[in-house]
Amino acid sequence: MKMTGAQALIKALEMEGTEVMFGLPGGCILPAYDPLLDSSIRHILVRHEQGAGHMAEGYAHVTGRPGVAMVTSGPAATNMVTPLCDAYMDSIPMVCITGQVPTSAIGTDAFQECDTVGITRSVTKHNELVMSAQDLPLAIRQAFHIATTGRPGPTLIDIPKDVLQNSMEWHWPTDAEVIDSLPGYRPTMKGHPRMIKEAAKLILESERPILYVGGGVLKARAAEALLELAELTNIHVVTTLMARGAFPDSHPLCLGMPGMHGNATAITAMQQSDLLVALGARFDDRITGKVSAFAQQAKIIHVDIDPAEQGKVRRPDVPIVGDCRLVIEEIVKAIRDLLATGSTQADTAVWKSRVSGWREQFPLSYEPSEPGEALKPQFCLEALRDSAPPDTILVSGVGQHQMWSSQYWRFDKPYTWVNSGGLGTMGFSVPAAIGAKVGRPDATVWAIDGDGCFQMTAQELVTASTERIPVKVAILNNSYLGMVRQWQEMFYEERYSEVYLSPDTPDFVKWAEAMGCVGIRVDSPEEVQPAIDKANSIDDRPVVVDFRVAASEKVFPMVPAGFGNDDLLLPPSQMARKEFLR
Asked: Catalytic annotation on 578?
């Protein structure tokens, strides 16, 4: 069957199961937009290409399916670099299609030409410039295959305008053809049997074990296997920022989030453990603090599908390369076999008692507002959490509000938390929430943002309004770049350099209304609950709630950058008893 490259591109996307894509047309990609008129694919027209990328990420976060974005050449492609890098850092499956100048013009500095493949090489798992229309179906199949297998990540296909216009003979490659066309790409899925037995033996011998769970558990759809392992061994679980929801916060074995702004119990339990079972986690600097001072007495079992992560930061005693779900299931089987043949598990009663004591002594805490004082952001989050419908998806930007969100929300189900972890992208929240709502239209989606983050990508609420995507946005508005202010107060002698944002400009309520949203402003504690109830009752358009919160509030606990986890800073009310953590 004869067709144009553009028709082949859209047909290939349909064959890959693409139901929705996010994008913005322009000159070089324009031929691909014509067959979209006859396609089953829903296209969501964004207001900035960066928004398209973050929407694709949000969609992928909550569905597990690759998000698809399509933009034109030059500045449109460079606007995609941030979401591509964000997806690369957080292992998000995403396929990006970019237009390119005609093949005859490549290398001539033509209008809106840039070396998209070169620019994005370091922030994609795979990218390719397709020079023939006949090659498009295979290129798309490869892009989806690579994005969704092994360690997930973003891929990019760059297509010159004339390749989209030229004719080709349709052929849909088989699975075997795709695999044969990628001879160097063979992700290891099953863990080494000897290493799995070693891991099972170490787990049973450990007296102070911790399951250190990263985002790879969610990517592998391994939450059920993780629960089985934790309950079989009765080992406490910490969930990193990217793994929130992988293990239920309500479970008695869950210690919550470790790291720079984790809770004291999770941080200390990792620090004093004798065995860390790292599952889909990469020993990020925000978790370890000063690496040489991190969990010095702990042996390491490291399970990760990416062999490059083994030994990158901390040398493991038992390295296991493989899919987290498959490996965890094999470890569970190996432990059951050992127990059935007479092995016993070490006594962890003393360890459990210590952990219980830390939990009792060092809960997350903040000082409530006194009459007449500004709202506390933690109070707003608790009210949002307690009023949230079941299965609510929470999406955050980056900064103080991100840390408070992870700390004070309760995540009992996987894929209900969406945030930018590795890259820390301000402006992520609003477009990612739109993508999440498109992926899960049945779920309530709340975006938690700061006033700094919100001003970076708020224009995408126009997209949400016109496309009838009723997300809800809570701005924790302290008129500052809050996390930067916190660092300047604590480490720069309160020298507040270029961190103050105007408390009156913009007027977020008017701005929300101008974008087709409902705008609500909240200044006092008694206004919080009525505003949340009103926001939750609105389902036909986006809602923006401007919570005017205290600028002086800081995120605690905190491990200062460059320090070890033992140098943890607690809330002022708890610092006097910090010795209990020793």
From this structure: no
Residue 448 dihedral angles phi and psi, to the nearest 5°: -100, 125
Residue 483 annotated in active site: yes
> Looking at residues 216-221, what average pLDDT do you find?
98
Structure tokens at 199: 């891991």
Per residue in 117-142, pLDDT (tens digit) is 999 999 999 999 999 999 999 999 99
Q: In this structure, is the dihedral angle defined by the CA atoms of residues 398, 400, 401 and 407, taken in order, positive or negative?
A: positive
pLDDT score, position 577: 87
HEC assignment per residue over 173-241: CCHHHHHHCCCCCCCCCCCCHHHHHHHHHHHHHCCCEEEEECCHHHHCCCHHHHHHHHHHHCCEEEECH
Q: Which of 112, 165, 310, 361 is catalytic?
A: 112
What pLDDT sits at residue 579? Answer: 84
Whether 49 is catalytic:
yes
Q: Which domains does the chain have, with CATH numbers?
A: 2-180 (3.40.50.970), 193-361 (3.40.50.1220), 377-548 (3.40.50.970)
Contact 56, 19 (CB under 8 A): no
575 is catalytic: no
Closest listed residue to residue 485, CA positions, set 415, 414, 532, 555: 555
Kindly give, in sequence order, each residue whose CB lies less than 8 Å from that of residue 415, ignoring residues fewer than 6 positions away: 61, 62, 63, 64, 218, 245, 393
Distance, CA of 377 to CA of 396 (rounded, Å): 14
- pLDDT for 213: 98
Q: H-helix or E-strand containing 542? A: none
Neighbour tally for 504: CB within 10 Å? 6
Pairing status of strand 2-4 against strand 167-169: antiparallel
pTM: 0.97
Our measurement of the distance from residue 167's CA atom to the centroid of its chain's CA atoms, rounded to an integer in Å, reads 40
Helical (H) or strand (E) element with 318: strand 318-321
Selecting among 11, 161, 219, 472, the annotated active-site residue is: 161
207 classed as catalytic: no
Closest CA to 66 of 449, 557, 439, 520: 439
Mean pLDDT in residue range 545-556: 96
Catalytic residue among 49, 309, 329, 553: 49
Q: What spatial distance separates the first Cα and last Cα of the chain, rounded to whole Å?
A: 72
Read off the pLDDT of each residue in 300-314 and give the average, rounded to a whole number. Answer: 98
The 3-class SS string of 266-317 reads HHHHHHHCCEEEEECCCCCHHHHECHHHCCCCCEEEEEECCHHHCCCCCCCC
- From the candidates 111, 490, 513, 534, which is the catalytic residue? 111
pLDDT value at residue 322: 98
Confidence bin at 341 (pLDDT 50/70/90) = very high
Select which of 483, 488, 508, 558 is catalytic.
Answer: 483
Contact between 10 and 35 under an 8 Å Cβ cutoff? The reply is yes
